[in-house]
Amino acid sequence: MHVFYTYLFLTDFQQDAFLAILRFVLILLVIFHVLRHVRDTRSSIGWIGFTLIMPITGFILYMMFGVNRVVHRAQKLVNNRPWHNKLLDNMTRYYIKGHFYPLAKVVEGFTGRPLLIGNKVEPLFNGDEAYPVMLEAINSAKVCVFLSTYILKSDETGKAFADALIAAQQRGATVRVLVDGIGSGYFYCPISKYLKKNGIKMDRFMHSFLPWKMPFINLRTHKKILIVDGKVGFLGGLNIANENVLALHPKHPVSDTHFKITGTIVHELTEAFLQDWFFITAEDLNKKSFYPETETAGNMICRIITAGPDSDIEKIKYTMMQAISLARKSIRIMTPYFLPDDRFLSLLSLAAIRGVDVEIVIPEQSNQRLVDWARNINNLMPLQHGCKIWLVKAPFNHSKLMVIDRIWSFVGSSNVDMRSLRLNFEINMEIYHKEFAENLDDFIGSHRYKLLTLEELENRSIIAKFRDATTRLLLPYL
User: Fold this and answer.
1) Residue 153 in 3-state DSSP?
2) I need a surface site. Which of 278, 354, 362, 462 has the fewest CB within 10 A?
3) pLDDT, tens digit, 9 for 90 and up, residues 267-295
4) Of 473 and 415, which is predicted with more confidence?
5) Where do transmembrane segments lie in this chain (predicted)?
């Protein structure tokens, strides 16, 4: 403020000189920081170029949106609390052989998590199947209930979950709830008010009205996980709202796929939630009672993989890309939004060129018109190189599934778009199990409704092509 008043009393020449020096200093600061901390070359050039043209505006925008404070915050908190695998050392690790060995080796290297055997994974379709099973688990809780979700609405379904959580805490269970600061309501989150009023400890992920915390608005937790007593877990793409219960005939129905998991892998899922809770609240709940001895529930080999713009950056994306590069026979991807970057598209195209049967299954019409327009441009490359893109008829399908060679499966919260693969906090699980993969592969195939053709995209009107190309500029934020 003192500098501002001093500036007002300077002569015109002195003011011009002051602004010139200020612009020069700000440009140097941005260039220095970008060269040290921004990895992406295109982003680096963009920020430097914009600041050279508009030094003051460029500096302000870079400080708000270009500096990844999440990494710094995550590193600081994690360094204060050594988490990884401290309670997983005695678990039954498994080592993959065969042509998926490089994938298993690479993923363990960058996640630090082992593959665990002794698990059972059961698919649950839509809220019609999933919600009753999830509520039954919560109603049986004795030790702890941990819930993290992108959307928790204050409707009939949301209230049923809230009441179950409240009852679990009244029985003596430790209950923690984490919802996204945007997905569950930025300005008003009624379910948060209801839970807190009834004594539930819950938080809204990266939520703040403070101007200096505005950069965090673009960073969302997209995870959908539930853990009960450290023995049963749920993971997938399912939010908690009436729109996911097709029997209720909602105005905008959403079909989805969720998974119930039991066995040793629940420990990794518990650890993932408690890391997020510590990251947001600094409350340390890494207690042995939350990691009970688990009985072998089956013979499925699994691993949890988390990703986000912190120390886990792009790990889900790297896993998918490595799996694609190892595919020999088939690649099946089902996703509500298909907007990956060119590297991802190139790997799919190369797989198709070498003879792999590549199929991408996406909604004929999603719940976001801008995404549908932007994906038209992205779909050109894979179609040109022999990939098949199938459209799914209504209702809008929100499932996130991937199967390679009918052996390896990848399920969870992550879409195949740049937001999920780089900006969002996501959680997926890889599964090595032939029978499960075959069933999931067939499930994806059962949704093939209409084959999208290259001719159809190329015959769009000039106006539609211009609209789609313009929309694609927003690709990192859609």
Assistant:
1) coil
2) 462
3) 999 999 998 998 888 898 878 889 888 77
4) 415
5) 17-35, 47-65
d(CA 213, CA 203): 16
Q: Cα 223 vs. chain centroid, distance in angstroms?
A: 6
Residues 352 and 466 in one domain: yes
With residue 68 as reference, give the H or E element that holds it. Answer: none
pLDDT higher at 93 or 202: 202
Give, in order, the Cα–Cα distances in Å from 477 to each of 34, 137, 147, 210, 302. 20, 36, 26, 21, 31
User: What residue type is assigned to position 56 of the chain?
Assistant: I
Residue-wise burial string across 224-246, b where 16 or more C-beta atoms lie within 10 A, e elsewhere: bbbbbbbbbbbbbbbbbbbbbbb
Span between the terminal Cα atoms of the chain, in Å: 38
The CATH number of whichever domain residue 452 belongs to comes to 3.30.870.10
Residue 27 domain boundaries: 2-67
Asked if 302 contacts 272 with a C-beta cutoff of 8 angstroms, the reply is no
CA 216 to chain centre: 15
Q: What is the signed CA dihedral for 103, 424, 146, 303, rounded to 10 degrees?
A: 0
Q: For residue 232, what pLDDT is reported?
A: 97
Domain boundary among 18, 48, 67: 67
Higher pLDDT, 472 or 146: 146
Contacts of 395 by beta carbon, 8 Å cutoff, 6+ apart:
246, 253, 254, 255
Q: Which of 163-172, 278-287, 392-401, 441-450 has the lowest mean pLDDT?
A: 278-287
Least confident of 84-88, 152-156, 273-277, 305-309: 84-88
CA–CA separation, 453 and 388 (whole Å): 8
Q: What backbone phi and psi angles, to 5 degrees, belong to 374?
A: -65, -35
For residue 226, which of 280, 183, 165 has the smallest C-alpha distance?
A: 165
For residue 456, the SS3 value is helix
Residue written as tokens 């920020």?
47
Q: Token pair for residue 114? A: 């082992």
- Residues 56-73, mean pLDDT to the nearest whole number: 70
Q: 315-329 pLDDT, tens per residue?
A: 999 999 999 999 999
Count how many Cα atoms sit within 13 Å of the Cα of residue 295 in the half-sphere of its side chain: 1
Query: 391 to each of 175, 179, 394, how far by Cα in Å?
Result: 40, 31, 10
Domain shared by 237 and 268, yes or no? yes
Query: For residues 2 and 118, which has the higher predicted lDDT (pLDDT)?
Result: 118
Please spell the DSSP secondary structure of 173-232, one letter per residue: -EEEEEEETTTT-SS--HHHHHHHHTT-EEEEET----GGGGGGGG--B---EEEETTTE
